[in-house]
Amino acid sequence: MRFQSVMSLALWLLSVINLLYILRSFKALISRPQLQYSYRGHDHPQYLPFSDELVEMVIEESVHYPLQGLASDGQWDSLSSESYGYVRLGTDDRLFAVTMFHELHCLRMLNFAFGKEGIATPEHIRHCLGYLRDGILCTPDLTLEPGDFEERDFEVERMGATHFCRDWSAVYPIMDENYAVWKAKPS
């Protein structure tokens, strides 16, 4: 009887150890980032390869990006990348749009809606409003902002709250390098 109890205990312990090993292996398998993709179908990264390091960004009123006028065009255009927000990834140079640039494009379409007839169609504006809404809800910024913004004198109190954001300025060199590499390839 004692031998049977010892064997049962040993078998039970081995089963527990085996289960822990399987769970650990499974966890390592699902948490390991996939470094190789075929870029066919859904086999591609979900995000542009980029650092998740956060930087401080003070939100403040700006004299830039007026609603209309020639000064507006250059300022809004400066927010785009040379590739217009597209990257090519993988050996076949599969084309992807980067969400940040799609969102900036939508802001530009809203800017066009204020003055340039025919550039921003109602359908495009509707798409952009929905796209921006979904983007805001997908990554909500929960920074607390001081007081009622309508009571602030923006000429005197230009600065608002400090936010912690992904470093958007670091995206541009990545986009430019990707575009330059693609452009340098023989047709």
Give a description of the structure:
Pathway: Mycotoxin biosynthesis. Belongs to the ustYa family. Keywords: Membrane, Oxidoreductase, Transmembrane, Transmembrane helix. This is Oxidase ustYa. The chain is extended, with a radius of gyration of 26 Å. The protein is 45% helix and 12% strand. It has 187 residues and is α+β, with helices and mostly antiparallel strands. Helix 3 packs across helix 4. It starts with a helix and ends with a helix.
Topology:
Blueprint: H1 2-31, E1 54-60, H2 70-77, E2 86-89, E3 94-97, H3 99-113, H4 122-138, E4 159-166, H5 171-184
Antiparallel strand pairs: 1-4, 2-3
Key structural traits:
UstYa-like; 45% helix; transmembrane; membrane; oxidoreductase; two-stranded antiparallel ribbon; 187 residues; alpha+beta; Oxidase ustYa
Radius of gyration over alpha carbons? Answer: 26 Å
The major β-sheet equals: 2 strands, antiparallel
**Poorly predicted parts:** none
Number of strands: 4
The shape, in one word, is: extended
Percentage of residues in strands: 5-15%
Q: What level of helicity do the residues show?
A: 40-55%
Order of strands across the widest beta sheet? Answer: 1-4
In angstroms, what separates the terminal alpha carbons? 79 Å
Kindly name the structural category: alpha+beta
Mean pLDDT: 83
Total helical segments: 5
- Element-level helix/strand string: HEHEEHHEH
Family: Belongs to the ustYa family.
InterPro entries: UstYa-like
Keywords: Membrane, Oxidoreductase, Transmembrane, Transmembrane helix
Transmembrane segments: 6-23
